[in-house]
Amino acid sequence: MALLSMRDIDKSFFGKMANEHVNLEVGYNEIHALLGENGAGKTTLMNILYGIYTRDSGTIEMEGKPITFSSPKDAIKSHIGMVHQHFTLVPTLTVSENITLGLKSPGHPFPNRKVLDEQIASLSCRYGLDVDPKAIVGQLSVGEQQRVEIIKLLYRDAKLLILDEPTAVLTPQETESFFTVLRRLREDGHSVIIITHHIPEVLSITDSITVLQNGRNAGTVQTKETNAEELSRLMIGRKLQGSKREMISKQNRGNGLVLSGVFLSKAKLGPLSLQVPPGSILGIAGVDGNGQKELAEIIVGIRMHQGGTVSLCGECLDHLSVEQRKRKGIGYISDDRHKDGLILDMDLQDNMLLKLFGEEGIVTHGFVNRLLLRKRTEQAVAEHAIKTSSLECPLRYLSGGNQQKLILAREMAGNPSLVVACQPTRGLDIGSSETVHNMLLRLRKEGCSILLVSSDLDEIVLLSDEIAVMHGGKIMDCLPNDRIDLTKIGLLMAGKGMDA
Length: 500
Ligand SMILES: Nc1ncnc2c1ncn2[C@@H]1O[C@H](COP(=O)(O)OP(=O)(O)OP(=O)(O)O)[C@@H](O)[C@H]1O
Fold this sequence. Notes:
The protein is globular, with a radius of gyration of 24 Å. The protein has a six-stranded mixed β-sheet, sandwiched between helices. The chain has a six-stranded mixed β-sheet with strand order 16-19-20-13-21-22, sandwiched between helices. A four-stranded antiparallel β-sheet has the order 2-1-4-5, with helices on one face. It has helices at residues 42-49, 72-77, 95-100, 113-127, 142-155, 172-187, 199-205, 228-236, 292-300, 322-327, 337-340, 348-356, 370-383, 400-411, 430-445, 457-463, 486-493, and strands at residues 4-13, 16-26, 31-36, 57-62, 65-66, 80-83, 160-164, 191-196, 208-213, 216-222, 257-264, 269-276, 280-285, 307-312, 315-316, 330-333, 363-364, 367-368, 418-422, 449-453, 466-471, 474-480. The protein has 500 residues and is of the alpha/beta class. Residues 13, 18, 36, 38-44, 197, 387-389, 397-402 line the site of adenosine-5'-triphosphate.
């Protein structure tokens, strides 16, 4: 008998099927991947299991007993827990306060703070989830916050843990220790469902895999009996072409983006000097949190630098607002789409307007040309294969990958002269990542300067003409792509090897 069995699950939104006759079985002590392209229906299926959505039809059984949850509270009572893509912690509270939030109900004795901290420390130690119970959550790294979310579920006695794209926010090092935690959970009698579209990860950590395609089952396989090719075929139903960076002749197209001696106080960043000529990609490699975000925000005008200058095509940008810089043709793909990429309660068209307002004909005498805006949004949806029920759908209801695609479509539209792309393929499936890579290469060919910040070294090496490595707010070294030494880059990322 399986631990969990979901059969013939149907779910539609506004008449559009998100899940159609979907089946899923998860065994005891099993790490199971739910794999599929962006918008394949993975999160919807798990939201049904967790009591967030009500299914239209189908049955769910846990240990052979039929279950129906009307809220996550019911799911937790049945020992099912879920960590969402975007965490639900309160940043101003401590780790232990977050873990016990909402637990003061009869039947669940509330321990005093000392006992509580001990219980949390013991859970942390048992599963290798290293966090300080007294730490303020807002001051923790994303990886640490994820550990808090997992401890929160374990504290509530979850036996089946659902993790929605858990590694999308982790650095490669954090991912390794996260896998160790998953193995310990399995050894200790837990089962885990990981929602993902990252095939190498699926192959290295899971026991079995269910693949969804367009809301339907595309296959269920045992991990040791499959390979990357089969999974990619099941997932996207076509063979990938790959991306190739062609050599571009060095025409004299001006300076592109130039930063000279830019810095922020308290040794947070710089002084930095760099140049991204038109028709080239400068990749910034580094572990998240080493000044990459500050650098990107200075260039697009969100953050003011305290010294040095930023110029684009020979024009100083220092005193220009974000809006003025957008009008100069700067596109910005932020690494945090919910915080500064989108307005979730607005629909696709109004989110497109956030950048397109500067384009000719879109806003005249203060009035928005809705017809033209609609046309441009339709084009973006078609070109990027964005899955949505309508153009009027609030962004909140698009899948994570489709939200990301809308940002990319918007920021790369209208012949930009500079694109600052931070983690542009985070949360995207392999097919969509390839599309984004090809789009960046196309913009490069058209003469755009591109600053690419990514924690995915393969992506940096694939796309960049030059690679700068950042550590501690400084550029450790800048290497042309034809002289790449990955070991050296790794050392520089860790802050070593200046004299290597
Ligand atoms: N509350 C909702 N209202 C309207 N449509 C929705 C809602 N939730 C999901 N959908 C739609 O259902 C489809 C499946 O979305 P889902 O989030 O389940 O995909 P996913 O496989 O998790 O994708 P991703 O990998 O991009 O997160 C998408 O077309 C999405 O727009």
